[in-house]
Structure formats: structure tokens, C-alpha cells
Amino acid sequence: LDYQHVQVPFEITLWIMLASLAKIGFHLYNRLPSVVPESCLLIFVGLIMGGIIYGLNDRSPPVMDSDIFFLYLLPPIVLDAGYFMPSRPFFENIGTILLYAVVGTVWNVFGIGFSLYGICQVGAFRLQDVSLLHNLLFGSLIAAVDPVAVLAVFEEIHVNEKLHILVFGESLLNDAVTVVLYKLFRSFCEMPTIKSVDVFAGVGKFFVVGLGGVLVGLSFGFTAAFTTRFTKDIRVIEPLFVFLYSYLSYLTAEMFHLSGIVAIIACAMGMKRYVEANISLKSHTTVKYFMKMWSSVSDTLIFIFLGVSTIGENHEWNWPYICFTVIFCLVWRALGVLVLTFFVNRFHVNTITSKDQFIIAYGGLRGAICFSLVFLLPDFHRKKLFIAATTVVILFTVFVQGMTIRPLVDLLAVKRKRESAPTVGEQIHIRFLDHLLAGIEDISGHWGQYYWKDKLEYFNSKYLQKILLREYDQPKSSIVLLYEKLERKHAMELAQAGQLGHGPAHPSLLSDRTVITDQKLEDTQNPDVLDNMQEILARNLYRIRRTGPAYNRHTLPGETEPAEHAKEILILRHKNL
Amino acid sequence: LDYQHVQVPFEITLWIMLASLAKIGFHLYNRLPSVVPESCLLIFVGLIMGGIIYGLNDRSPPVMDSDIFFLYLLPPIVLDAGYFMPSRPFFENIGTILLYAVVGTVWNVFGIGFSLYGICQVGAFRLQDVSLLHNLLFGSLIAAVDPVAVLAVFEEIHVNEKLHILVFGESLLNDAVTVVLYKLFRSFCEMPTIKSVDVFAGVGKFFVVGLGGVLVGLSFGFTAAFTTRFTKDIRVIEPLFVFLYSYLSYLTAEMFHLSGIVAIIACAMGMKRYVEANISLKSHTTVKYFMKMWSSVSDTLIFIFLGVSTIGENHEWNWPYICFTVIFCLVWRALGVLVLTFFVNRFHVNTITSKDQFIIAYGGLRGAICFSLVFLLPDFHRKKLFIAATTVVILFTVFVQGMTIRPLVDLLAVKRKRESAPTVGEQIHIRFLDHLLAGIEDISGHWGQYYWKDKLEYFNSKYLQKILLREYDQPKSSIVLLYEKLERKHAMELAQAGQLGHGPAHPSLLSDRTVITDQKLEDTQNPDVLDNMQEILARNLYRIRRTGPAYNRHTLPGETEPAEHAKEILILRHKNL
């Protein structure tokens, strides 16, 4: 038996297997997942596993390695979140999300930090040796809402899109703030004296970390899109690039101490549109499926590890400190949401209702990020107290808040997500309103959301698409393809009958695919059916094609070449004769 | 900058990226891949990379770690090979394949080992210190044909299926022999004296290693199939199980010193049939796509690393030894193929032609497995000579044989793979002949291939399918589904009109999906089209369904329950009225 040799991959595979089997197990009994969130069940499995390991070895089970968490488990989840992020509600609410993520998190950090310092001054609790800086450091790691925990719970309760994006967007974007504050306080803890210049450097650093992450992410995203332009002959490795480039963006950002989460989200959102247009349909299915699978496994592993790591002797159970931490987390978040929403509502027409505010405050779940950060703390004599407090906060938020949020949503009758997709009419109206508002903003000289969106769209169609998209993008709808074939066939017949003179009737006839297409067509269609189809299609589709794909502020209907125009009219007239 | 922290994943990602970009690069220029096999190009890229690293650092570039190769790069390729193995030609030629793989490899090992020992006795070459055992050890690692190299070349030349499976099957199954002989000679090298009992133990060990691998693989394969029975509610992690179980089978086999390659192939071939039936179509696309992608990347990395590792100062260039190694590899393989094929042809009707024999002998490419094994050799003073000889043999076979085999196949007019799929008529005839031959073998008391195949099929349908397949297996063809819907709808109408008494007309009406199905049907079809369709379908499909899926020796046409039978006839008569 040679276990040493295969130990690493064997144990990794076994853990993933355990996670997958646990997931199957829950879903076998249908009622369970509808009452208890999966995250709770997984932590529970982890607790049992940890108990078994603890019982057998009589020592603490291994805790989740922070490196493994940040380098291997977190990226797939964030990538999945970024790739499937609904971009419209995200950008519509970006201001509010940033306010919650930046100001809200800072508010929570300082609120929790200072009030816990106050608690430490009470003699009876025996906590006088925990300094203000340590309390602020602890506040910086416990304040941040966790995207993994939020996603696990909010995916199951189906609240309306705006509410979902507000909580989820905040949990993703607060990473930049958390990174900066956590590292700042940690370095302050090790410094002998703190100068005021360090504090200002910290504030400046926030912008570097956040915007740097966006820049790194976008550059990798565009490179990924550019790379997929050239994969036409080797479709099988297309999905790889999506994963490789986004992972590289995360690692690069982490390497430069920027926010990896922000980078990977920017990368995923940046590349999605172009990659989807470039890669084949099967590749895209694989990308989507594998992303979901991977994030689902990562998610499962994180919660199981959370459970396992909870068992053991890493904790110092000073209950006053722990209880006050839970209370302050709840109170400061509630206050923060109330105050910030008050300001947000003053500047918006679509206000955030008080029910929504309650869910935003109540949905501030903590998770594995805090847990990993607390283990990364430098060793000092009260680290075990912080670990205990973090564990209790996580378990409290995931179990108590996670399990009660669904009944609360039902009870408050919070507006739910609409189940049906928007109708064509609605879509057209939304689009029309976008253009209208962009125009109004342009005339009134107000550079608002629609103005910038419109400018971005112009930049995209004028430059980005030309660089990042493949040149010959085939129309994907089969009805358009069929119409194209029929048109070509007819033009060929006309040309053969000599009615159109010497040149080919249609520019696309020059492409060498035509012959094959035609042969196929003749094999499969009989002339009666064909004529019939052609008539229907010509009546309906010709006009659509003539007027261009859709109204666009930056192209005029008359922009097609007049020569082509004239020729097509000629063909049409010949046909009618 | 914190490079240390992200180094491992960052460098892995960069290597994979390099490999993928290299692949894209070759395919951009269309003529290149049709002349030079991709494996040669990749080794060439590796050589350049190695040269750059060597030039910059002035020391040997890092060689491919044998652990990385055997634990991470080889399994995906073998899994892909096993999963997409055409099982019919494989099992039809299993005897010949095993003969080549076992006897042929032993023949090569001893042939090459003894003749190289003869060369070592020539005083002018200064090789007297290389013992017979060392030569045999070297023979055991250089004799084995490499599946990765064979696959890379044979996938591009499209020879006929039988020839392909003979070379490829041999390259896969000789792993068991290689493992045993390599480990045997290596332990002999370290033993002071060798007893004859050790030699017999070695022979016994071969059966343990090979059959043990098959057993481990099959048990994991069936467990995988069994697991996918329960993934109905959680489709997204289905593809995971295919990868996890097959990887576990490989690792478990390696752990017990069995043949990992044989295990993973047995696992993949064992589970394929059941897994495919259990998992969803999208999951299956993902499995196939990801397997291809993964093996393609592994393959690319292996050849690049081969190139990189070639550069450096690990070699002792004793040219006589190296040249004679190349010559003996060619000569002994050619002799082995000739002799073994002579015996094979005496017992078979479909003989292996002399052209095929030449391609089998010429297609015996060596690759990364030899390379990894030679680096795993215990340190002794002539290890660098063995490394040099192995490198030259690999480069010679991959470059010279790999590049000339395609022109030779053209020149000899070797029978090619048929491009078209077999027609329905052919398939029916093949099936009919199978049953006929199984019957003849049964009557004549000859327990041949068809007899066992038939017994296996019986065992499969009687026991395995019941355990491993999901109970409610839906027919997947849309025409069958449509017919089912129409039949149900009609039965419903009859039941509503009271023509069939109280009970529901068809057992399947009891399922709760019916109502939804019916509603959908009413939405989409208009009555005229529906009646028309129903008539056509009823005429054609009803009879097919009545007589069962196909003729089967183990089920009789009358085996459906008589009650159901009677009811269906009743429905049919009512309809005709």
C-alpha cells in the first residue's frame, strides 16, 4: 500500500465526493431543502464530520486553510456570480450598491469596533487588554457581508430583482473595502506609532484597490474575448479560456494586493458578451454548466469545512464579548441601512420601501470570508476569542437569519421576482425608453446614467466589437438561415436564366458555401413546399432585413450601400413578374 | 507584489494558457497541421521554451515531475481514451490485443535488454559496467508503446478501425506488463541475490496487477452508475461523478500498486452505458466536451514538457548505445509483430494483412511514460545514459515515424476508416448475425466470443440494468414522445366520453404529468393537424411499440402484462369505430 504517493489528489477527490454525495442526499428527501437552506444542512454535516474526527483523534480537526479558501474555493463562486450577474439591474443600482458597499461597510467596521471597545472597558468582563486597534481589526473582518452565504440563501427565497442585486452586489463589492481596512488595521497593529499620513494613505489605497481590481479584470476580460476570436478551428478548448483568463485576473489582482473579487467580476462581466458571440453553442453550454457545477461544489465544500473547523479547541468562550458582537453586528447594520437608504431615497424616484430595508438589513449574512480572515490574523493572546466570536456570528447569521428569512419574506409579502420573461412589447418599450431618456439627458445637458450607457454602447459598436468579435458572425436563428438559403437559390435561378446579366445576383453568392448550401436545399425540399415557404418568408422577413436589426441611435436606415440596395430591388421585381 | 502567495496556481494557469495558445497558433495556419503532427510541433515549442530557460538561467530547465505526470496529466487522457473507446472492435479483437500487449511487450523487453547487454560487451564502446539487470530494466521501460503518442498520431491518419484498435489497445493494456516488469527489475537491482521464487512471484504478480486493475475499475464504474441514479433533482453536479469516480479508480489502483491505466479504462467502459442513460442530455454534452478539452490540454502539456525537459545537462551521449537502442527497438518490435501475427492469423478468418502488420510495427511510438519512468529510476552512475537513450528514442519515434507514417499509409494504400455511419440495414444484419452466431455457438457447445457476449447481455438486462438504471427511463426520441402524448390525449377523450367505463384508459394516465402534457398539447396543436399526425403515427409506431424494442433472445414478445394488452386493443378498436 502506497498511500503517501497519492495522498493529496486522493483526499481532495474524497472531499469533493463527500460534498457531492451530501448534496444528493439532501435532495432525495424533497421536503428538507424547502424548509432548511442547504448551507445550514452542509454546516451541520461538517459539524458531524468534525465531531467524528475530533472523537477519533482526540485533537482538533484541521481547520480550513485560508490559502485554499482564497485561491481555490472562492474564485469559482465569484466567477459564477459575475458571469451570471444580471447586468441591467446591477448598473441601474450601481450608485446605491456602492454606497452600501463602501460607506455602509466603513460605518459597520467603525461602529462595531468602537462599541466593542466600549464593552471591553467594563471591568466585569475581563477584556481590558483588548486594545481599540484590535477591536477595529476585528470589526473590519466581521463587518463585511459574505457573498457565498448571501447567494446560498437569496437564491432560494426569490425576492425581487432589485432587492436581490442590492444585497448581493454589496456583498461582492465590499471586498475592496474589507481588504483595505483589514490590511490597514493589521499593519497598524504591528506599527509602534501611527501617523496621520498613514490614515490618509489608507483612504487613497481604497481607490487603488477597487479601481485597480476593475482595471485588471477588464483587461483580462477583453484579452479573453480577443483570444476566442481565433478558436474557430479548435472549438474543444474554447471553454478553457473563459476559466483561465478569469482565474488569472483573480490571481494577478491578489498578487498586487488589489481586490481579486472585484477583478474577477469585472473580467466575467466584461468578457461575457463577446465570448458568447464568439464561441460555439456547445462550448457555451459547457461553460455555463461547468461554472455552475464548479461553484456549486466550491460552495458545498466551504460550508462543510466551516462546520468541520468549528469543532475543536481553537475557541475562547468569553460570552459577553461574543453576545455583544452578535448584537452590534445586527444593530449597526440596521442603523446603517436606515441612514443610507434615507439619503438614497431622497435622490431616487423608485424608493426602497421599509420592507425592503428590513430584508437588506436582515440579509447581511456572514460567512467563510470572515472565517478565513480571522485565521489569517497574526498570533496574539486573544486570537482565540476572535475566532470564537466569528464562529458564533457566522453560525447565528446562517442558521437563525438564514432559516427565518424565508418565512419573514412570506409574512411581510415582500415583492417577489417575476417568473415570466418580459414580452416582446415590454422589451421594445424598455429599449425605446432608454433611447428617449438618453436623448433627453443629452439635450438637457445632464450627464446621467442613460447618457453614459449610450456613450458606452456607441464606443462598443464602433471600436470594441470590431476588435473583439469574429468577422463573419453567422445569424443563429434557423428561420433567418432558411430565408437566406431560399433567397440565394432564387437569385441563382435568375442568374442561370440570364435575367440579371453577367454578374452574380447577390454579393453573398461569391462565398463558396453557396454551392453546398444549394445542393443540400435541393436534396431536402420539394419545389411546391419551397415556393410556399419562400412566399411567406419573403413577405415577412424581407422588410425586417431591410430596415436593419433594430433602431439604433448611431446608424441610419439608409447606411447600406446603394448598389446592393438597387440589386436587391431588381431581384424582387424579377420575382414578382 | 506578493508573488509567493499565488505562485503555484499562477504558474499552473500560465502553463495551461501557453499550451492552449500554442494549439490555437498551429491551427491559425491551416496547412501546418496537415503535414506535421501536432505532437511534433508541441515538442518543438517545448524545445524552444527549454532553450530560452536554459539560456536565461544557464542551468537545466526543470524536468517534468513524474508525480505530476502520473497523477495529474495522464489520467485525463486515459479516461478520454477509455470513455470513447469503440467497444465492439475492442472486444472483438481483445485476444489479439492482449497477445500483443502481454507477450509482445515481454518479448520486446527481453529482446531489447539482452541485445543491449550484448552491445555492452563490446570493449570499444566502454559500456562494460552496465549489467544485464540494468539493461533489462532499461528494456522494460523503453519497450512499452505509449498511448498518448499513439493517440496523437493515429487520430490524424484515419486508418481502419481494426488496425487502430490493435495498436491503441496494445498501448493501453501493456501498462500492466510495464508496471510489473519495471518494478520487478528495479527491486532485483537492489537485491543482493535473486531467487527463482522471486521470478515466479513476478509472473504471478502480472495477473494480480492486470486483473486487480480491472476489478478496481469496474467496481468504481458501477458505483458511479449507481450514484447517477439519484441525481434527478440536482442535474448540475452529474458530470462531476463521472470524473470523480474514474479518478478515484485510478488513484486507488495506483495506491495498491495495480495498473491505474487499466483501472480507469475498465471504469470508463463499465460506467459509460449506464451513466449515459441516467444523466441529462446537457450533462452528457458537458461530460463529453470537458473530457475532450481536458485530455487535449493534458496531451499538449505533456508534449511541451517533453520538449522542455529534453534541453539540459541530464544526458550522457554514448552514441553507440543510443543508436543500437533505436535499432533494437525497431527490429524487435517488427519481429514480435511478425511472429505474433503469424499465430494470430492461423486462428482467425479475418487475417491481419502484411500492410497492417507493417503499420502496427511502425506505429509503435514511445512517449512520455518511458520518459517519466526513466527519471524515476534509482540513482546509479549510468542513469544519464539511459535518460539520453530514452530521449532519443522518443524524439526519433515521434518525429521520424510520426511524420512519415501518414505518407506511408497513403503509399501502401492501407484500408481507411469508413467515413459514413452504418445504415439501418447493416445494423440489423450485424445484430441478427450476433444472435445467430450466439445460437450456433450455444448448440455446438463452443464457448466463444458470441456465447459470452450473449451471456453478459443477459446478465446485464436481468440484474445490472435493474440496479444501475433509473426506474422511469423516458424515451428520448421526440417522435415517440409526441406519439405518447397523442395516445394519452385520445384515451382521455375516450374516458371523458364514458366509452371506457370508470377506470383510466391507460396505466400511464395515473402519472401526474399527464395534465400538464395535455394542456401543452392543446395550446400548440390545432385539431386537423393533430388528427392527421395521430393517424400516421398510429399506423407506424403502434406496431413497433407492440412488438417490443427489438428482438431479444431473453424476452418473449408476449411478456407484457395481458391486462394492459387487452386495454390497448380496446382503445384501438374504439378509435377505429
TrEMBL record, chains A, B:
Alphabetized UniProt keyword annotations: Antiport, Cell membrane, Glycoprotein, Ion transport, Membrane, Phosphoprotein, Sodium, Sodium transport, Transmembrane, Transmembrane helix, Transport
A Gene Ontology cellular-component term: basolateral plasma membrane
The record's annotation in InterPro entries points to: Cation/H_exchanger_CPA1 (IPR018422), Cation/H_exchanger_TM (IPR006153), NaH_exchanger (IPR004709), NHE-1-like (IPR001970), NHE_CaM-bd (IPR032103)
Q: How does it sit in the membrane?
A: Multi-pass membrane protein
Which Gene3D superfamilies would you find in this protein's record?
Answer: 6.10.140.1330, 6.10.250.1040, 6.10.250.2020
Family, according to the entry, reads as follows: Belongs to the monovalent cation:proton antiporter 1 (CPA1) transporter (TC 2.A.36) family.
The name on file for this protein is Sodium/hydrogen exchanger
Could you tell me which species this protein originates from? Grallaria varia (variegated antpitta)
